[in-house]
Design a protein that fits this description.
By secondary structure, this protein is of the alpha+beta class. It folds into 3 domains: about 150 residues, no CATH class; about 45 residues, no CATH class; about 150 residues, 2-Layer Sandwich (Beta-Lactamase), CATH 3.30.450.40. About 45% of the residues lie in helices and about 20% in strands. The strands form 2 sheets. The chain has a 6-stranded antiparallel β-sheet with strand order 8-7-6-11-10-9. A 5-stranded antiparallel β-sheet has the order 1-5-2-3-4. Helix 9 packs parallel to helix 14. About 5% of the residues have low confidence.
Length: about 375
């Protein structure tokens, strides 16, 4: 079984969501005018990726970081000519010139860079070969890279890729490369502020992400945008879907636990048994303060790991006058106080409207299909 299509019809971010949520194992192959790439998934996590869009391969990355020496690298290249089925990373490892830990660290950085570049491609062909990990038989990319020992969450890579994109766009918006006087004039014209004034983090994020929220491709993209925004403000967080009596995990950031994304999506909590959570959901207003102890809130903390936080925050997402999702955040790792969150609150309000719009579009499409069916 394989999933085949064009990136014009199904964005890479949506493909990642499908493979992650479905815990799929296999190889995603991408072919475009910019170049070729492959990404290997195991149980919904990314363990290997390589592309010919970037110059060089993981071997050159190791060389640049002085992890391997020129002479050893040259020997590795000669061995690879005799063993074309092996990657340069595998050969260097077998030669004993680089540790598994160094390869894992370098490979993770390279995977992040590869995914970031692939996210910029919106035209080309893709196919996902289920349970097929024979990279060399599937992809046109010359080197097969290195398989990391601990898979990387696709949601994390999407958020990091989007963050890098936002930072680069902000640099362009601020006129990097202009004279100091011109840059100052641009700041004052755009924001009415001095170029050296420090902008609040939540307002900066609001400016960069609101535009993306105007035309989301799917509800999963709205979920990712909310988590991305919150990850700029807090050290960790979880977005829950709110049902009639239960909370169901949708996504997370910053959790230092095994299989974090998978574990959160498996989490279901009966909030009706928690007076504290019922009050938060019924009020439909953001809450910041101490988390009251009860059976349900203690269960949440067990799922998240770590000790009891000194301060927590809840942000309800409202659609059609009803709380449909609940964002939990804290800084349990450091115990730092919270920064201003008005920008996040505004963004979550807009996210609720975007979800409402998405639901209306879906209902309209279903109605049009119903109307188009022949009557008997």
């Amino acid at each position: 079984m394989s999933l085949v299509g064009r990136l014009e019809d199904l964005a890479l971010s949506d493909i990642f969501q499908i493979l992650s949520i479905g815990k799929k194992t296999g190889t995603l192959v991408i072919e475009s005018e910019e170049g070729n790439a492959f990404i290997v998934f195991k149980n919904g996590l990314i363990v290997r990726a390589e592309t010919d869009i970037l110059e060089g391969n993981i071997g050159q990355d190791l060389l640049k970081k002085n992890i391997v020496k020129d002479r050893i690298f040259a020997i590795g290249l000669n061995v690879r000519k005799e063993l074309p089925g092996k990657s340069i990373a595998e050969i260097l490892f077998e030669l004993g010139s680089v540790s598994k830990e160094s390869l894992d660290k370098t490979a993770k950085k390279r995977i992040e860079k590869i995914v970031y570049h692939l996210l910029l491609i919106n035209q080309g062909d893709f196919r996902f070969e289920l349970d097929n990990l024979d990279v060399r038989g599937l992809s046109k990319v010359d080197d097969t890279g290195w398989e990391v020992s601990k898979g990387i969450s696709p949601e994390y890579l999407l958020m990091e890729g989007a963050r890098v994109h936002d930072e680069e766009m902000q640099k362009e918006d601020l006129g990097e490369g202009l004279t100091e006087e011109a840059a100052g004039e641009t700041w004052e014209e755009d924001w009415g502020e001095h170029p050296h004034a420090v902008e609040r983090k939540d307002i900066s994020a609001l400016k960069s992400l609101t535009q993306e929220l105007r035309f989301p491709n799917s509800t999963s993209e709205i979920t990712l945008l909310v988590l991305r925004f919150a990850s700029d403000m807090f050290q960790r967080g979880v977005l829950f879907m709110v049902g009639e009596k239960e909370l169901a995990g949708l996504g997370q950031f910053g959790l230092d636990i095994e299989r974090a994304d998978e574990k959160i999506r498996e989490t279901v909590l009966m909030y009706e048994k928690s007076p504290f959570l019922r009050k938060v959901i019924e009020n439909g207003q953001p809450f910041k303060g101490a988390l009251e102890r009860d059976g349900v809130t203690e269960a949440i903390m067990r799922e998240l790991g770590g000790g009891w936080p000194a301060e927590i925050a809840f942000f309800p997402v409202i659609t059609e006058g009803k709380v449909v999702a609940l964002l939990y955040c804290d800084n349990a790792g450091s115990g730092e106080g919270f920064s201003e969150t008005e920008g996040l609150e505004i963004f979550i309000s807009q996210a609720g409207l975007a979800l409402e719009k998405s639901l209306l579009v879906r209902k309209l499409q279903e109605f049009q299909k119903e109307q188009g069916r022949p009557r008997h």
